[in-house]
Design brief:
This protein has four helices and five strands. It is an alpha/beta fold. The relative contact order is 0.17.
Length: about 100
């Protein structure tokens, strides 16, 4: 994410397992030192991330109880975890040859 951000990409990151406001200690120190822009990019709004993105990359199967949004026809989704139903959510689906 940091590399893409550094190249000028406008990123939004949804991760149900990371809550920036609850990070502390060495985890918080690592993020502040190595990936300081994470706090600006990380959100708990899955729908907002989906509406924002042209390309979505799914790297974890946990949506934190959020519903899978419908994708726009012009969006591409790269599914690295075989998220159930994602191949039928619209957009251009790219999976790992399941």
């Amino acid at each position: 994410a940091e590399r893409l951000f550094g190249k000028g990409y406008d990123l939004r990151i949804f991760d149900a397992n990371v809550n920036y406001s609850k990070l502390m200690g060495s985890n918080l120190a690592y993020i502040r030192q190595h990936i300081p822009h994470l706090s600006e990019r990380l959100t708990d709004d899955l729908l907002g991330v989906v509406q924002h993105g042209d390309t979505l990359v799914v790297t974890h199967p946990d949506l934190g109880g959020a519903s899978l949004p419908v994708l726009r026809a012009d969006q591409a989704v790269i599914d690295l975890v075989r998220l159930p139903g994602l191949d039928k959510a619209g957009g251009r689906y790219i999976g790992l040859h399941w």
